[in-house]
Amino acid sequence: MDAFLTFIDSVDGFLGYVLVAVLIPVGLYLTIRTGIVQLRLLPEMFKVIREPAGHDPDGNPTISPFRAFCISAASRVGTANITGVALAISIGGPGAMFWMWVTAVVGGATAFAESALGQLYKVRDGAAFRGGPAYYITKGLNAPAIGALFAVIVAVVYGIVFNTVQSNSITDSLAASFDAESSGNLFAVVVGAIIAVAAGIIFVGGVHRISAIAAVIVPVMAVLYLVLGVIVVALNIAEVPAMLATVVTQAVGFDSIAGAALGTIMMEGIRRGLFSNEAGIGSVPNAAATASASHPAKQGLVQALGVYFDTILVCSITGFIVLLSNPEYGSPQGSQLTQTALSDQVGQWGVHFLTVAIFFFAFSSILGNYYYGQSNIEYLTNSKRALHAYQLIVVVSVFLGSVVALDAVWTAANIAMAIMAFINLIAVLLLSRTVMRILKDYQQQRREGVEPRFHKDRMPDLVGIDAWDGTDEVTQAEFWEKHGSR
Fold it and tell me: Which of 230, 234, 248, 453, CA to CA, is 20 to 30 A from 223?
């Protein structure tokens, strides 16, 4: 067994570096080809995220762009934003933060491309929509077998395995905060049961309930964590300029506080940035597809903004908390480093504050991860029994994750996620010409002074475009005459 664990750990490490070597060039290629869309249209992102949702033909409200953003943010922003960032800094030093920021900027173009494709090839699902890489691989590339493989990986890795990790993080943080480690498994069982039941109740409500809850949790957790970061920065305001200078100088190799080589500093920052914001992994397009949008490019822009929210905002807060506390570098440290830094800065209450943050981060991730799995289960089958069985499996997994840490399963899931990312990146590259057509169509309508709207007749040569038939209220001119063009 030890030999097997060593083997999968080595495979995981190797694929992690290979994935970075693929994701960055793809992000740079899309950045150049789209004319740096992730920076050039940044003001546009803040406009479209506030757009209203419409109604389906039966009068039921659809998912707004903001709610779709919250679903993706719920999954993106998890305990890794606390543990993973601290780990990257403890190994790579302050310079790792700089490369996380660079990765976020580059990844914004990839997020735009994959999310625009998720929107373009979405299908109607009652009063909502669903889609993702499995859908655009099948419809856009006519590769249903590959789409099915992708769907299976997402359903297992995100809906089941990753959720065991999130529930385990909730239990561990609560046990530490309430000094309940000595109570044995009883505390873990009780917490696990509460989390599993609460999650199950939300699961059965479908994407509308998930998006409604996420639309509350995501802003709350963002504000709470932002306040925490502002407090720490304010307490150390005189040291902030020196901290930022250290981040930059170490990032380019002028100073190596951690004793790490430049390659290690870069790799730690890049890996943490990529695995945190998930740009290119193929998970976020599942959330992007849920939105009722007047043009596919709009959700591309919204989800590019999500990369900045995750890495530039949330990860940076963790980084500032750690760096302003003069940590020791060179040995791997995760959430304990963040907890120690907080207690040093604001006292013991900071540890409890962090527990609240971890709870919100992890529970919202459970909801977002589950929805990714649901969307792909519905790609594989329309059977309600199959969906209900999947919901039960995820609920049980959430409970088990609270009681038992499944490290080997987590490592295997990382390997599967890397395979998923390779599949998605190849698909995005093959469909990049379609991405450019979508972007140009959007920009042309903006230049003409009209609200960008899309209909499949605008690109009749594209096959598999099912949802863009003019029945969605937000794609109709009358909707924008009523609500006003933005």
Answer: 248
Residue 174 to residue 412: CA distance in whole angstroms: 27
Residue in this structure with the two tokens 């999954």, named with its chain if needed: 75
Q: How many CA atoms lie within 13 A of 283 on its CB side?
A: 36
The domains of the chain, with CATH numbers, are 10-446 (1.20.1740.10)
Which residue type sits at 202?
A: I
Which helix (H) or strand (E) is 120 found in, with range? Answer: helix 95-120
CB 459 within 8 A of CB 169: no
- 274: part of which helix (H) or strand (E)? helix 262-277
Rounded to whole angstroms, how far apart are CA atoms 455 and 210?
A: 28
Does residue 52 sit in helix, strand or coil? coil
Residue linked to tokens 């013991």: 348
Asked if 476 and 455 count as a contact pair (C-beta separation under 8 A), the reply is no
Alpha-helical (H) ranges within 347-406 are 349-380, 384-403
Q: How many residues does the chain have?
A: 486
Between the CA of residue 23 and those of 32, 47, 271, 297, 427, what are the distances in Å?
Answer: 14, 28, 10, 21, 13
Give the contacts of 33 (CB within 8 A, at least 6 positions apart): 432, 436
CB 276 within 8 A of CB 81: yes
CA angle at 106 for the pair 94 and 27, rounded to the nearest 5°: 130
Cα 3 to the center of its chain, rounded Å: 33
Query: What is the mean pLDDT, run by run of 10 residues, along the chain of 486 residues?
Result: 68 73 89 94 92 80 87 77 75 80 90 95 86 94 94 90 84 74 73 91 88 85 83 84 83 57 63 73 90 92 90 84 74 65 72 80 88 92 92 92 70 77 92 95 92 91 89 85 68
Residue 217 near residue 223 (C-beta atoms within 8 A): no
Q: Using only the alpha carbons of the chain, give its radius of gyration.
A: 22
Q: Can you tell me the distance from the alpha carbon of 389 to that of 393, in angstroms, rounded to the nearest whole number? A: 6
Cα(371)–Cα(159) distance, rounded to whole angstroms? 7
Of 213, 203, 107, 228, the residue nearest 398 (C-alpha): 203
